[in-house]
Design goal:
This protein has no helices and four strands. 0% of the residues lie in helices and 46% in strands. The protein has 54 residues and is mainly β. The chain has strands at 9-14, 21-25, 36-41, 46-53. Belongs to the bacterial ribosomal protein bL33 family.
Length: 54
């Protein structure tokens, strides 16, 4: 599958400050703002907000 500029790779960083990151792809036309997802932080052992960094 070819890479697309409509679906760039987004790096998500934990808002808890533990340094944990996730990598995902997002649809730029549906989500033009920075992505915020609630995901599991294995250092804390609970779900926290992960925000897109650039």
């Amino acid at each position: 599958m070819a890479r697309s500029t409509a679906r760039p790779v987004a790096k998500l960083k934990s808002s808890a400050g533990t340094g944990v990151t996730y990598v995902t792809r997002k649809n730029r036309s549906n989500d033009p703002d920075r992505l915020v997802l609630r995901k599991f932080d294995p250092v804390l052992g609970e779900h926290v907000l992960f925000r897109e960094e650039r």
